[in-house]
Amino acid sequence: MTDEKALTVLVQQVAARLLAVGGALVTAESCTGGWIGKACTDLPGSSRWFRGGAIVYDNELKTRLTGVQAATLERHGAVSEATVREMARGALERLGGTISVAVSGVAGPDGGTTDKPVGTVWLVSAMGRP
User: Fold this and answer.
1) DSSP 82
2) Pairwise CA distance, residues 30 & 116, whole Å
3) Measured between alpha carbons, how far apart are the two ends of the chain, in Å?
4) What is the sign of the dihedral through the CA atoms of 5, 6, 10 and 16?
5) CB–CB of 62/87 below 8 Å?
6) Burial (Cβ within 10 Å: 0-12, 13-18, ≥19) of residue 20
7) Dihedrals φ, ψ of 47, to 5°?
8) What does pTM read for this prediction?
9) CB within 10 Å: which end of the chain, N or C, has fewer?
């Protein structure tokens, strides 16, 4: 179970840091379905530091919207460090932030495998220039 209060505190800390340095956050979300973006926009004044994000649940959208290479998806799958790294970099390049957060995983209750059981999640951040 996720602690909403802890998430709110984390978002407030991120917001304060981004405001202090003139930065902007962008997101690329798969298994969270926009939840990170929602947590950001729940905070008043988020438009000063949160630019937006891409919900890329589908592999074709991971490629088209965040620049994940088809070969990466084929070799490593959607739930992999390699894919989420490309999502994070692509979000920075295509959405124009100074920092990005990308996530993909197997949320369940089904869809898990021996190699990637339910609960497997990759979360990656990438940084650009302020």
Assistant:
1) H
2) 15
3) 34
4) positive
5) yes
6) exposed
7) -65, -15
8) 0.91
9) N
Q: Return d(Cα 31, Cα 55) in angstroms, integer.
A: 9
Q: Is the pLDDT of residue 2 over 80?
A: no
DSSP 38-52: HHHHTSTTGGGTEEE
* Tokens standing for residue 97: 């932030």
Helices (H), the chain: 4-21, 35-41, 59-66, 70-76, 81-95
What are the structural domains of the chain?
4-127 (3.90.950.20)
Are 56 and 73 spatial neighbours (Cβ–Cβ below 8 Å)?
A: no
**Using one digit for the tens of pLDDT, what is the confidence trace for 32-91?**
999 999 999 999 999 999 999 999 999 999 999 999 999 999 999 999 999 999 999 999
